[in-house]
TrEMBL record:
Catalysed conversion reaction: GTP + H2O = GDP + phosphate + H(+)
Summary of the function given for this chain in its UniProt record: Involved in targeting and insertion of nascent membrane proteins into the cytoplasmic membrane. Acts as a receptor for the complex formed by the signal recognition particle (SRP) and the ribosome-nascent chain (RNC).
Name of the protein this chain belongs to: Signal recognition particle receptor FtsY
GO molecular function: GTP binding; GTPase activity; signal recognition particle binding
Main location: membrane
Keyword set, alphabetical order: Cell membrane, Cytoplasm, GTP-binding, Hydrolase, Membrane, Nucleotide-binding, Receptor
E.C. number(s) listed in UniProt: 3.6.5.4
Length: 293
């Protein structure tokens, strides 16, 4: 697994190169500020980091501890639960929900677990079709209904079926957009209630999918979902396709939520557990040279 996160930071490293073409042992505060902004760390967070840095010459170790501190909330603790473990996947359309659900399912399947999907984005026919296609490809059962049907019913049926057949995991897709934000909030809340009715304690976690190419502009969107439904963790998709890798710091910091995985490509296996040390060191490798080198 090691190396995937660093590799997916290639575009972010290129962006850093545009403001800091030569790797060095130390940088001035101004230089570090430019580098962080170029990597799409949000301005406010860059200011916070800089205000707390008293040294004039910034070394790798100094920046490392500052960046790791912004990811202090990234530890995730799995709750106690009785199988099946039910996950609700939320996020705006196009964030990569479908692909990420498939990647999660593939991951659990690789671990020898039995996974069932629920096509809960009944707002778009294409969402149901796409998830069904993935389910076929991965040879995983899926519960779906026609477009326009109540997604809570899909969630209930999926959990019910998974329970009676002894499945380990249930992953339920949800709509990313309805006619109004209030409708979406109500729908997500109802799905939550019905999940609990189908299986006490469910959903055991609600994951927000964020499109990494949106960078910091995803923060408000994430806050809105968190208010609507309560998020337990984040998955950032398309890290490999963005120069905005630094936005991970501002997203985690602003939401005080753990980042569980990052998407590092388009294939079912391209989902990597987020390791904050690998992520920070991958970024620092693009900035600093080793003192020994
Ligand atoms: N390079 C790369 N592409 C990704 C990643 N995750 C998703 N994609 C691509 O992003 C596009 C949109 O993802 P989908 O899962 O289809 O998302 P969607 O169906 O448009 O929208 P939702 O399912 O509603 O989020 C697809 O072309 C995916 O292959 C990733 O981690 N890396």
């Amino acid at each position: 697994m090691f190396g995937f996160i660093k590799k997916s930071l290639n575009k972010t490293a290129e962006a850093i190169k545009s403001v800091a073409p030569k790797k060095k042992i130390t940088f001035t505060k101004d230089e570090i500020e430019d580098i962080l902004l170029e990597a799409d760390v949000e301005y406010d967070l860059v200011e916070i980091i800089m205000e707390q840095t008293y040294q004039e010459k910034i070394t790798r170790e100094i920046l490392r501890s500052k960046l790791l501190a912004t990811l202090a909330y990234t530890e995730y603790k799995e709750p106690e639960y009785t199988a099946p473990f039910v996950e609700l996947i939320v996020g705006v359309n196009g964030a990569g929900k479908t692909t990420t659900i498939s990647k999660l399912a593939q991951r659990y399947k690789n671990e020898g677990k039995k996974v069932m999907l629920g096509a809960g984005d009944t707002f778009r026919a294409a969402a149901i079709e796409q998830l069904t296609l993935w389910a076929k490809r991965l040879d995983i059962p899926i519960i779906s209904s026609k477009q326009g049907h109540d997604p809570s019913a899909v969630a209930y049926d999926t959990i019910d079926s998974a329970k009676s057949k002894g499945y380990d995991h249930v992953i339920i897709d949800t709509a990313g957009r309805l006619h109004t934000q209030t409708n979406l909030a109500n729908e997500l809340k109802k799905i939550n209630r019905i999940c609990d009715k189908a299986h006490s304690g469910a959903p055991h976690r609600t994951l927000l999918i964020i499109d990494g190419t949106q960078g910091n502009s995803a923060i408000n969107q994430a806050k809105a979902f968190n208010e609507m439904v309560g998020i337990d963790g984040i998955i950032i998709t398309k890290l490999d396709g963005t120069a905005k890798g630094g936005s991970i710091f501002s997203i985690a910091y602003a939401l005080e939520l753990p980042i569980l995985y990052v998407g590092t490509g388009e294939q079912p296996d391209d989902l990597t557990p987020f390791d904050k040390y690998e992520f920070v060191d991958g970024l620092l490798d693009a900035i600093f040279i080793d003192e020994e080198a």
